[in-house]
Design brief:
single chain; alpha/beta; Aspartate Aminotransferase, domain 2; Aspartate Aminotransferase, domain 1; 2 domains; seven-stranded mixed β-sheet; four-stranded antiparallel β-sheet; 13 helices; 13 strands; binds pyridoxal-5'-phosphate
Length: 396
């Protein structure tokens, strides 16, 4: 692996130099007022990125997976019913976590490559007259399949059924890269981490709780200690943590939010869309297909690309790393060996994306796939030439 090359995995993502420097801090006393000057702006920044006025944001030393656990254990009790769809590796893991916590999960089996079935959700919620279902789980962007689902449609399903269940959204690979509207979509808990759209090292679980989710703290009886948001809220009120905070990462998060909001969230989303569209045009020029079943499901943060029958897609990832020092993502779970993934989120420019596409072409040609060198790159170049914006600040 060459550290000169960008990575094309869907997290951890490339880190801008300024954020690496922001994380590298001298030791400071986390019980001094100085810490509050890092913590509170970071929390305020995250709220803006979530497009929420009313959420309470909590940041744990953890990863996105810890964010899932924070959501479940603070609001639910053993035996509670939850509704979830399984359409990829990440939704599957969250379901597995529910089972391990003794929750009762109604799982809607959904093809990998399809989006969340809002219609099925509506049917099931409508049939649940006694309102036994306490929470609906939704993975906004299935990182395993490159599928972005419609969270507004899930909210409409809840409303159409007149069902009071809370809506928990995994936005680990969408928040800060693709449009996310916590308040407008009536999201009760939003979960993310530091190492994807926020362009930081792994190490933070970032969650937003709506007022309804905060109210659920009172009745929830699943065991929780490290991830108890009540302890965290008491800490924040005193400019502190219930334990030692990851000060450097929080400083990085504060600056990351400044960068995202400085570029403008809509501009950040447009940049991701433009870069992703170039990648999709390249895939099309190669004669390959995405795992996502239809255009409206295309993720702007990761593309999962199907390889021809009988070809092991993992070879692409192995060969790219060994020969060219470039990282792509392997297929996970049901699509292991059938897809390889190009991550295109975080600190990325058109030019960086072109280098990844050029590398993928060399790799596929080396491995005997019928790919004409330059074909995908040219398709992406045409797209970038005709749509390029001024260089983005986040990529500086
Ligand atoms: C990366 C990811 C996770 C897991 O996050 P970790 O930080 O690895 O714990 C969860 N959900 C989605 C959609 C992801 O992309």
């Amino acid at each position: 692996m060459s550290f000169q090359n960008p990575v094309f995995i869907p997290g951890p993502t490339n880190m801008p130099e300024v954020l690496r420097k922001a994380v590298d801090m001298p030791t400071l006393d986390h019980r001094s007022p100085l810490f509050g000057q890092i913590l509170h702006p970071a929390i305020e920044g995250v709220k803006q990125v979530l497009k929420s006025r009313t959420a309470q944001v909590f940041i744990f030393p953890s990863t996105g997976t810890g964010g899932w656990e924070t959501a479940l254990t603070n609001t639910l009790s053993p035996g509670d019913h939850v509704l979830a769809a399984r359409n990829g590796m990440f939704s599957q893991r969250w379901i597995d976590m529910c089972n391990r916590h003794g929750l009762n999960v109604s799982v809607v089996q959904t093809p990998w490559g399809a989006g969340l079935p809002a219609d099925r959700y509506e049917e099931i919620l409508t049939a649940d007259k006694g309102h036994r279902i306490k929470a609906v789980l939704a993975t906004h962007n299935e990182t395993a399949t490159g599928v972005r689902s419609d969270i507004a449609a899930v909210r409409r399903a809840l409303d159409a059924a007149g069902h009071p269940a809370m809506l928990f959204v995994d936005g680990v690979s969408s928040i800060a890269s693709m449009d996310f509207r916590m308040d407008e979509w009536g999201v009760d808990i939003a979960v993310t981490g530091s190492q994807k759209g926020f362009m930081l090292p792994a190490g933070l679980a970032i969650v937003g709780f709506s007022p309804r989710a905060m109210a659920a703290l009172e009745t929830a009886s699943l065991p929780r200690t490290f991830f108890d948001v009540r302890d965290m809220a008491r800490g924040y009120a005193a400019n502190a943590y219930p334990y030692t905070p990851t000060v450097g990462l929080l400083n990085g998060l504060k600056l990351s939010c400044d960068m995202l909001l400085g570029e403008g969230l809509e501009a950040v989303f447009a940049r991701h869309h433009r870069i992703a569209e170039g990648v999709r045009r390249a895939v099309n020029a190669w004669g390959l297909k995405l795992c996502a079943q239809s255009d409206d499901l295309h993720s702007d943060t990761v593309s999962a690309i199907r390889t021809p029958e009988g070809f092991d897609a993992t070879d692409i990832v192995t060969h790219a790393a060994q020969k060219y020092g470039v990282a792509f993502g392997v297929g996970l779970g049901e699509v292991a060996g059938r897809v390889f993934r190009i991550g295109h989120l975080g600190s990325l420019t058109d030019v960086m994306a072109l280098s990844g596409l050029a590398t993928a072409e060399m790799v596929m040609a080396d491995l005997g796939l019928d790919i004409r060198l330059g074909s995908g790159v040219a398709a992406a170049q045409e797209h970038y030439r005709s749509s390029a914006a001024a260089p983005a600040r986040a990529a500086a």
